[in-house]
Write a structure and sequence with these properties.
alpha/beta, 15 helices, Oligo-1,6-glucosidase, domain 2, binds alpha-D-glucopyranose, TIM Barrel, Immunoglobulin-like, 20 strands, 8-stranded parallel beta sheet
């Protein structure tokens, strides 16, 4: 038992070898994309009631924690990442009282709860932005945002050349109270998401208060949205010739992204989280250029963990993955933080569909990157199974995005008229965006809504589920040891029990070309064959589990094996 919130205890079932290791160093955290997880009230949108009803499922996988995507009041211009009030719950998801019950019940199931905090921007409906619009140029209300006069003779051009992460200029001009076109405000995402000015101490104070509001309710930590965006270079200088996307790996530094000034913010957040017993934790969403920049966010006096997107984006080749793992482990060790492994999330194409394409020819991040390439879904699923065993054998903590444990593919054929991702409109219908990985989960039954909504629901799921998902539902896979769900369950149980897994070191074992093999102590090895042929196992031992049957003594192509050695 470990202390959760005052008076409430979080049960933990960890091997004795891990007692004393902070839970977040080796946790498996399940990402609950709330609007697509489970719909309790039948309106076609997932909600808190749905999550509460599925806590036994999550605890039984088993996972250690859940991360819930934004559930705050929002006009939903960016699926809840446009927050209008950080201290309440959007009615579509439930009430604050229900949220408090969920946190309590999750703890009762031994699950920690992480929320999503969105500090880079607010909704244009947020009281602060409405006040800024009303108060006019030069006001204290506008100083919470980045308002600037435009360039050009009539101020008709944006104040600088920055582009929105979703396409188009990062500035929008407002109409002043006299009816005339006036100042411009900065938004690195949609125009409905004005960026906050983190040089303003009021902004910092407000977010510390928001964090305490949730920590006081027992929340165990936050995933920080766009953690690399908060600090902007002084003076907001132009970035001539900057490639797009501006925060892509390998790109030159951009004055809007990954500025060194961001670290003082997180040092202050660390002090807030450390004032709690047990200390609350943070995970950074930071799309930065390489591990050296990434691990700056998780130095001992800053955040706890940061998603390893280098690993997520690595193609399914032994060379790319070995480099990503080796460099990632070394960089994290240099700051004393555990690596955080992740294969997908609500912003990228699902890995079954990425791995179904030829690997290493171009970056496969979004649905739009997958088009026009030869596709083999059986191969994608086979590789995703192997990737799951690789993910869960690596040192540190791991995130599972809902539906990964079911082997869900990206839904690539959503009709235009159902697409809700703002990327679709903002790119002038050139990019279909991220809805293909956000389709509501199939739980049971032979037809949509596949148990996502209760019987007699008043509305269909907010995105249509493909008919063939009947075979991928939780109920369809339950009891089938050969299913993806069976694989995840076995691997998660073994990971929880095995003293070698979780936090710690890895040692590579030399193996044939196209094969990754590493040991974890005591007595564990993981072998992954990314070549097109079966291969000899590079070390002998008892097979604990495998993602595909062995071929005699040999490991099959595109499969992984866990060994007791
Ligand atoms: C993060 C979120 C993404 C959102 C964006 C703007 O990248 O994961 O879904 O659109 O931030 O808040």
């Amino acid at each position: 038992m470990e202390q959760g919130q005052a008076g409430r205890r979080v049960r933990s079932e960890r091997p004795s070898s891990r007692v004393g290791v902070p839970w977040w160093r080796d946790a498996v955290i399940y990402q609950v994309y709330i609007r697509s997880f489970a719909d309790g009230n039948g309106d076609g949108v997932g909600d808190i009631a749905g999550i509460r009803s599925r806590l036994p499922y999550l605890a039984g996988l088993p996972v250690d924690a859940i991360w819930i995507n934004p559930w705050y009041p929002s006009p939903m211009c960016d699926a809840g990442y446009d927050v209008s009030d950080f201290r309440a719950i959007d009615p579509v998801f439930g009430t604050l009282a229900e949220a408090e019950r969920l946190i309590d019940e999750a703890h009762g199931h031994g699950l920690r709860v992480l929320l999503d905090i969105v500090p880079n921007h607010v909704s244009d409906r947020h009281a602060w932005f409405q006040a800024a619009l009303a108060a006019g140029p030069g006001s204290a209300e506008r100083a919470r945002f980045h308002f600037r006069p435009g360039r050009g003779p009539d101020g008709g051009e944006p104040p600088n050349d920055w582009l929105s992460r979703f396409g188009g200029p990062a500035w929008t001009r407002v109409c002043e109270s006299d009816g005339r076109a006036g100042e411009w405000y900065l938004h690195l995402f949609t125009p409905q998401q004005p960026d906050l000015n983190w040089d303003n101490p009021e902004v910092a104070q407000e977010f510390e208060d928001i964090m305490r509001f949730w920590f006081d309710r027992g929340v165990d930590g936050f995933r920080i949205d766009v953690a690399h965006g908060l600090a902007k270079a002084p003076g907001l200088p132009d970035a001539p010739g900057a490639p797009w996307p501006p925060d892509g790996p390998g790109n030159p530094p951009h004055p809007a992204w990954d500025q060194d000034g961001v670290h003082a913010i997180y040092q202050a957040w660390r002090r807030v989280a450390d004032a709690y017993d047990p200390p609350r934790v943070f995970t950074a969403e930071a799309w930065v250029d390489g591990y050296e920049r990434l691990t700056r966010y998780i130095r001992p006096d800053e955040l706890n963990t940061a998603f390893n997107f280098d690993f997520l984006l690595a193609p399914w080749t032994a060379e790319a993955l070995r480099r990503s793992i080796t460099d990632g482990v070394a960089a994290h060790a240099s700051v004393g933080a555990p690596p955080t492994w992740v294969l997908s999330n609500h912003d990228v194409a699902r890995e079954v569909s990425r791995y179904a394409r030829p690997q290493g020819t171009r970056e496969l991040r979004h649905l739009d990157d997958l088009g026009g390439l030869p596709t083999d879904f059986a191969l994608g699923l086979r590789r995703a199974r192997a990737a799951a065993l690789l993910l869960l054998a690596l040192p540190g903590n791991a995130y599972i995005y809902q539906g990964e444990e079911l082997g869900l593919p990206e839904v690539e054929d959503l009709p235009d008229e159902v697409i809700q991702d703002p990327v679709w409109e903002q790119s002038g219908h050139r990019e279909r965006g991220r809805d293909g990985c956000r389709v509501p989960l199939p739980w049971s039954g032979g037809a949509p809504p596949f148990g996502f909504s209760p019987d007699g629901a008043s509305a269909a799921p907010w995105l249509p589920q493909p008919a063939h998902w009947a075979g991928l539902s939780v109920a369809a896979q339950e009891g089938d040891p050969g299913s993806m769900l069976g694989l995840y369950r076995d691997a998660l149980r073994l990971r929880r029990e095995h003293p070698a897994l979780g936090d710690g070191a890895i040692a590579w074992v030399s193996a044939a070309e196209g094969v990754l093999a590493f040991r974890r102590e005591p007595g564990f090895a993981c072998v992954v064959n990314l070549s097109e042929e079966a291969q000899d196992l590079p070390l002998s031992g008892e097979v604990l589990m495998s993602s595909a049957p062995l071929e005699g003594e040999r490991i099959a192509s595109d499969s992984a094996v866990w060994l007791a050695v």
